[in-house]
């Protein structure tokens, strides 16, 4: 049985590289040696681990996103910080466990009267890169709070074009039904209207932004946060479906064919973005990252894992992650390094020669050694909790402790990725240790908020959730 516990290991060079001091030194060295890279960070919404053909999807192909793996690196053990979007996006933009700030307790952030969002005073990836001389832009989904107190421009982005809420109709660009007054498309802080399929509009805008930044000869961060393949289930040509549905989270629509149309259109737009980088002559100067905000939903493929979005089973947390940076990341490489959403901030700060704010210590680890040196994997200890169904989890080395309601489990998720063989009675010492470590970690986070939003699926919504009453 492989435990790979990180508790008793002495520090290694790679583990030391994850410390804030080492990040600063590595950043200064990087800055002295070469100009900082441009960053194109592409985030899909609700894409499951096996929804790309390079991860095993069989019903369709994704050649453009696959090319990031063939010309760069593919992660086989990448995790989301949460099984739902707002919480993960909080961790992604802050580099810290989302449970340290109030907005990170929202699973996801709802549209009610509570005024919650990411404080403009909290340092973020775009704000710190901006201090380092980067131009910064968010295209697509925000979902971390509403105006006037919260927004991309308030949190470090120079420009924003996209939507502020959690979902948008692909054709009407409304957060409600076609006949509602819920338009949510923005250019900076001005509400706009524009016709077109949203995935295409985001691709169009990204191509223009890349060309503009390239002409300025200034390093840039482009956060391209697509809404695909998040519901509503609308592929190109599905305008009639857009008019039919009354709420975006519809349970009487969608199919594998529709899902394929949504993902392949996303792949096409990623291809256009990559071509824009190549045409601008900045490919060797640009790191491109593609990943997802959480595990897949109804029509997603999460094989070889069980579970979906809103669940701390591996299928709700495991995500694709592929990275290309010609001349720096070995083409066709694969890493089994355990990674998580909050790792991208320390990674990109190090590459950019930027510094973290010492008043907000980062929880993420720099992935620079894995990316640029193909370094051997460093054991990780990661924690999750999810309010719906009282879910809690720890991964330490290959072992994972999981609690769902009153039921508890211990799995070796490397040998048993489906999480079927409960080892808690066979490995009682490991079980007790992980329970204690979860409790110690949880005591350092904000407590659960009884008023916070939390989402899950019930038996009357999805047939495979029989017995789930919540």
Q: Topology, please?
A:
Layout: H1 13-16, H2 20-33, E1 38-44, H3 63-70, E2 73-75, E3 78-79, H4 85-94, H5 125-131, E4 135-141, E5 159-163, E6 186-187, E7 190-191, H6 198-216, E8 220-225, H7 239-244, H8 256-279, E9 286-292, H9 314-317, E10 321-324, E11 333-335, E12 339-340, H10 344-352, H11 368-373, E13 381-386, E14 391-396, E15 399-404, E16 407-412, H12 428-442
Parallel strand pairs: 1-8, 1-9, 2-11, 3-12, 4-5, 4-8
Antiparallel strand pairs: 2-10, 5-6, 6-7, 9-10, 13-14, 14-15, 15-16
Task: Characterize this entry briefly.
The chain contains 12 helices and 16 strands. It has helices spanning 13-16, 20-33, 63-70, 85-94, 125-131, 198-216, 239-244, 256-279, 314-317, 344-352, 368-373, 428-442, and strands spanning 38-44, 73-75, 78-79, 135-141, 159-163, 186-187, 190-191, 220-225, 286-292, 321-324, 333-335, 339-340, 381-386, 391-396, 399-404, 407-412. The strands form 3 sheets. It has a 10-stranded mixed β-sheet with strand order 7-6-5-4-8-1-9-10-2-11, sandwiched between helices. A 4-stranded antiparallel β-sheet has the order 13-14-15-16, with helices on one face. A two-stranded parallel sheet has the order 3-12.
């Amino acid at each position: 049985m492989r435990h790979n516990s990180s508790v008793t290991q002495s520090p290694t060079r790679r583990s030391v590289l994850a410390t804030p001091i080492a990040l600063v030194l590595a950043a200064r060295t990087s800055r002295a040696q070469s100009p900082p890279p441009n960053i194109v960070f592409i985030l899909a919404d609700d894409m499951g681990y096996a929804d790309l053909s390079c991860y095993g999807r069989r019903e369709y192909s994704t050649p453009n996103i696959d090319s990031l793996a063939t010309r760069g690196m593919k992660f086989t053990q990448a995790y989301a910080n949460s099984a739902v979007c707002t919480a993960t996006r909080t961790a992604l933009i802050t580099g810290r466990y989302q449970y340290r700030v109030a907005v990170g307790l929202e699973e996801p952030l709802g549209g009610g009267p509570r005024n919650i969002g990411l404080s403009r005073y909290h340092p973020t990836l775009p704000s710190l890169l901006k201090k380092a001389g980067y131009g910064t832009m968010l295209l697509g989904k925000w979902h971390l709070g509403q105006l006037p107190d919260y927004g991309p421009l308030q949190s470090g982005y120079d420009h924003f074009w996209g939507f502020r809420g959690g979902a948008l109709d692909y054709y009407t660009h409304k957060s409600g039904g076609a006949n509602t007054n819920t338009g949510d498309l923005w250019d900076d802080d001005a509400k706009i209207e524009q016709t077109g399929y949203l995935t295409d509009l985001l691709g169009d805008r990204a191509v223009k932004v890349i060309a503009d930044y390239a002409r300025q000869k200034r390093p840039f961060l482009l956060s391209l946060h697509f809404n695909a393949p998040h519901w509503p289930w609308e592929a190109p040509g599905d305008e009639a479906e857009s008019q039919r549905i009354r709420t975006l989270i519809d349970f009487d629509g969608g199919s594998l064919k529709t899902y394929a149309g949504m993902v392949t259109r996303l792949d096409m737009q990623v291809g256009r973005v990559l071509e824009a980088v190549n045409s601008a002559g900045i490919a060797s100067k640009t790191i491109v990252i593609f990943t997802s905000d959480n595990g897949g939903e109804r029509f997603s493929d999460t094989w070889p894992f069980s579970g979906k979005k809103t669940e701390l089973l591996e299928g709700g947390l495991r995500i694709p992650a592929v990275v290309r940076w010609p001349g720096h990341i070995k083409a066709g490489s694969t890493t089994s390094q355990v990674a998580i959403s909050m790792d991208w901030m320390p990674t990109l700060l190090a590459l950019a020669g930027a510094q973290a704010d010492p008043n907000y210590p980062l929880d993420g680890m720099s992935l620079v050694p894995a990316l640029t040196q193909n370094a051997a994997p460093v054991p990780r200890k990661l924690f999750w909790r999810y309010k719906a169904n009282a879910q809690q989890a720890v991964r330490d080395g290959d072992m994972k402790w999981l609690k769902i309601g009153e039921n508890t489990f211990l799995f070796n998720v490397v040998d048993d990725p489906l999480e079927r063989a409960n080892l808690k009675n066979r490995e009682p010492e490991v079980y007790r240790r992980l329970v204690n470590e979860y409790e110690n970690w949880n005591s350092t986070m904000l407590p659960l908020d009884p008023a916070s939003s939390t989402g899950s699926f019930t038996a009357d919504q999805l047939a495979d959730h029989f017995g789930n009453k919540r």
